[in-house]
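ERR on first pass: missing label on line 2. Operator R.T. fixed the label and resubmitted. Corrected input:
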Amino acid sequence: MAIESVAPLPWLVLLPLAWATLSFLLGPSRGAGIAIVGLLLQAGLVLLLAWQLTTMGTQHHAVGGWGAPLGIDLVADGLSVVMLLMTAAVALPVAIYARAWFVAKPAGAAWFWPLSGFLVAALNGLFLSADLFNIYVTLELLGLAAVGLTAATGERRAVAAAMRYLLATLLGSGAYLMGVALVYGTYGSVSLAVLGGLVESLPVVMLAAGLMVAGMLLKTALFPLHFWLPPAHGGAATPVSALLSALVIKASFYLALRLWFGVFEPLAAVSAAQVLGALGAAAVFWGSVQALLQARLKMLVAYSTVAQVGYLFLVFPLATGTPAEAAAGAWQGGVLQAVAHALAKAAMFAAAGAMILGAGSDRIDRLGGVGARLPLALFAFGLAGIVLMGLPPTGGFATKWLLLMAALETGQWWWAAVLVGGGLLAAAYVFRVLLAAFAPVPEQGRVTGVARSLEWTAFALATAGVLLGLFAAHVVTLLDVGA
Amino acid sequence: MSLGLFYALVGGGLFALGLAGLILQPRLLGKILAFNILGSGAFLVLVGLAQRGGTPDPVPQAMVLTGIVVAVAATALALALTRRLADLSGAAVLPEDDARAPANPRGPDGD
Amino acid sequence: MNRWASVAVALLCAVLALALAWAMWDLPPAPVALPAQVAGSLAISGVEHPVTAVLLNFRGYDTLLEVGVLLIALLGMLAAGATPERMTALPPDPVLEGLARLLAPLMVLVAGYLLWAGAFRPGGAFQAAAVLAAAGVLLRLAGPVTAWTRPGRVLRLALAAGFVVFLAVAVLGLAQGAMLEYPRAWAGSLILAVEAGLTVSLGLTLAGLFLAGPEIPRGGPRT
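pass 2 clean. output:
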């Protein structure tokens, strides 16, 4: 079969579903091997799709052969493919990490592989779907898989966090579904392509858009709707924390972006965009300050996610009602931030997990000696921190640079202040961990070694976050396809 | 007013009622019921608003069937987590401290 | 939550209800008329009932993912674990047990009818599965069926069978040109195969949502 005739779109959904089912059939704690093979194939498919995109433009697949609006269409444009690349780039190293992690700490291992397979399928499905109701189904698949993974250690804190997470995610998708109901009632279709030419500024559509975007803010944990995130991301098993913080919240952000700058563009108001930006700025400061105050390493990393989510929402004021060139730069900066944070945060959780395993405690003041015993994990943590701070030449720098330029070009200097201030705060909480880890060991030989793959995967993810800065131009080119 | 529109209006009311319940109910069982009311509201709007002209439309009917199954799955998971939480902590409510996650230096070690 | 915050939430929700009512009032007819398109393609969908045609053919992809949602809800429950020590036992009841043993085969029969009827009238895999699941719950409450802590190999196979069949049909469709594209001549049979698989697996999954948990010892409560 010629490589041109392989259709990556349906396979990107079918493949993870297949290995998820297979690992379920194999039984509890089984399936790491097929998951890793599946994710390798998935990475190949996404690269093939990216190549198809650059040579042939936006890719389509009409599921069932019907075509929208009767059937459901899958569409891959630049934004979708960048998100799919992000998913593949994070999920594969995290799977290798998880395999070693669950050998050291079996809590939460039993159904990790099938649940994470469904999670990856839901992410791919969501990024490819061009149908509002089908997106709802992928959102629920994603949310329930994420909640199941959060609860899987079975301890009280994790179950409470999973319950809180479940209620938040159900409320978010409930609001989204209400929006879908109003849109279908008004226009008679849920196909993004069909709706693109129909949406106008009616009260009912404004309400629908408001409900859908609000639901996504809750699922992305934008301040002050972040209450569910730190206990869930901080309390889950470490490979799960990495998947949740790196990928799951990006799905709802992607959807907010897709809706705001897509079908609902005729309604997008500058004032609403400014509110989203202000919430983003508040998230940056609140999340960073809370991260500084945490006693536990994983809670620090989780609050850092609350802060980093804030930057994502600076896209809205910078790209709504602003000149085309500045808006394009802000849009690229926002998407790059999603990717840079995904790589850096997965690296940070992975490194933090290795350090906690070595130190035997997740308290920051007990990390002494980690620097000497687990230098690679600590180095990965530091590198990931540099990406989050936004220092050159990392992916974080490319992100901040694009957003900064957009802020200055549009005369909105206050967002520039948020970018600079947030970077300094990130430096503060990252250095707090580094200082603690370089402190002398309280007692002799207390820090133990960990499996090498735990450190190496963290390092690989952090390096990818750094290299993203050097390849930012390629990502931006890809992003422009079909935009 | 057509019957479809009537259903849609009731659905809108149920959605708002469920939303209030989800936020205000202190106990988890109350929150789970509220979520189901919220979901039913959305389903009623989906079928009602689409069929306000009196023409039956199988598409939203099928969507609601899908939605109901999803809601059943979510409710079952929520109930299981509630039972597990009640077993572990002795109460079917969300603990306040976990949400704020205080920087407690004397807390037990996590993983 | 303090009193004023509660009042504020209640008021905001009331405003939302009014806003929804106002927005939905007097909408013009929808510009896209899907019922006509469904009717137009019904003849080549493989089934006669439009809702079944939408569920398993036109929007079959939604249904495929939805079956996944049910499966992960069960997995999430199993993953969160159960606490056997805190379960209370049910007292044995021979009358209830006898009744359940009598009703269960009838319910299987009803489920079979619903599955078959789905092709041309209201019914189908989900309705049939719901009846099967109810039989499972009944048998669990009455005694003959025990709870699952960890599904064994056979049970896992039965739980996943419907999804596996659906997934295989989705992959076979790729040979026609698109995921889940049924060959015209085979559409009816393939949909029936998918529905039959789903009836068994969904019935078990739905029952499992109730049955998954620690074993309750019969005869005398335990705390």
